Amino acid sequence: MIKILLVDREGISSEGIRLIIDKEENMEFLGVYFQQDEVQRMVLKKQPDIVLFQVNQSHSFVIELTKTIKSISKQIKIIYILPSINQAFINKSVKVGVEGFFLSQSNYSNFISMIENVYHNYYVMPKEIAMAIVHQLQKGDEKQRLHSKLLEKDIDLTWRELDIVYLLYQRKKNQEIAKILHLKEKTIRDYVSIIYKKLGVNKRLLVINLLENLMEKDNQLSTKSLEKDCQ
Fold first, then answer.
1. Which of 21, 44, 125, 138 has a beta carbon 3.0–4.6 Å from 29's, enabling a disulfide?
2. What DSSP character marks residue 124?
3. How far apart are CA 17 and CA 127, in angstroms?
4. Does the CA dihedral 48-24-117-100 come out positive or negative?
5. What is the number of alpha carbons within 13 Å of residue 127 lying toward its C-beta?
6. pLDDT at residue 102, rounded to an integer
7. What is the DSSP code (8-state) at residue 109?
8. How many CB atoms lie within 10 A of CB 184?
9. In what order do the strands lie in the sheet with 100-103?
10. Burial of 186 (0-12, 13-18, 19+ CB in 10 A)
11. What are the beta bridge partners of residue 51?
């Protein structure tokens, strides 16, 4: 029997979740609670296997309460029901140990199977969230991927030149680049001239087009691979 506790204000959405869970013979709905002290007390008393969070309150409240529940027992699985994809919040959620995510606008026919999978120690999230996370990771490593693409073409840049090339790729102007890198604008112009020679072009727009074409091909391959894995 999978024991489930819901963190939410009493209302239509919480009643709907209760009805869905009550139909399952292998699940027990332990109730709806919202106040932090009350949730903590009921977690200790009823020892749920899974705590569902209807994320319609402040993110800091949800994160802190999740930490509290995990401090009581790391065996308790946490699932967030999200109204939308918020990348920063999802990143924090993963760090505090959330095992599952569900979008409130998704088809609830998959809701029960998601709970069962999380209960059996699988990490579960919708395709939309998985792709958002991967895209964020790709973005964070974008400079390194750009470097790799340039090396494939035998274009070897110093780390400072790479910093500037990456900012050119982001269509930053010399003045903006100088401010970001804490350098003089003349120094940036000198670096840009060197970069033009290494890339074999003599205009800024040609540099940007070259870099965008390199990264566009890489992004298309990554997206196709991810979509195939999520199917």
1. 21
2. B
3. 22
4. negative
5. 11
6. 93
7. G
8. 10
9. 27-33, 2-7, 50-54, 77-82, 100-103
10. exposed
11. 5, 78
Nearest to 131 by CA among 166, 180, 87, 188: 87
Residue-wise pLDDT tens digits, 56-105: 878 889 999 999 999 999 999 999 999 888 877 888 898 999 999 999 88
Structure tokens at 153: 């073409």
Handedness of CA 33, 37, 40, 41 (dihedral sign): negative
Q: Quick one: pLDDT at residue 28?
A: 97
> Cα–chain-centroid distance for residue 190?
38
The model's pLDDT over 12-28, given as tens digits with 9 standing for 90+, comes to: 888 999 999 999 999 99
Tokens found for residue 17: 């979740």
pTM for this predicted structure: 0.61
Tokens (6 digits) for 101: 């995510």
Question: Tokens in use for 3?
Answer: 């024991």
Q: What is the pLDDT of residue 130?
A: 81
Token couple for 193: 């001239």
Cβ atoms of 188 and 174 closer than 8 Å: yes
**What is the Cα–Cα distance from 211 to 18, expressed in whole angstroms?**
52
Domains and CATH numbers, the chain: 2-125 (3.40.50.2300), 131-220 (1.10.10.10)
Q: What angle do CA 132, 136, 140 make, to 5 degrees?
A: 170
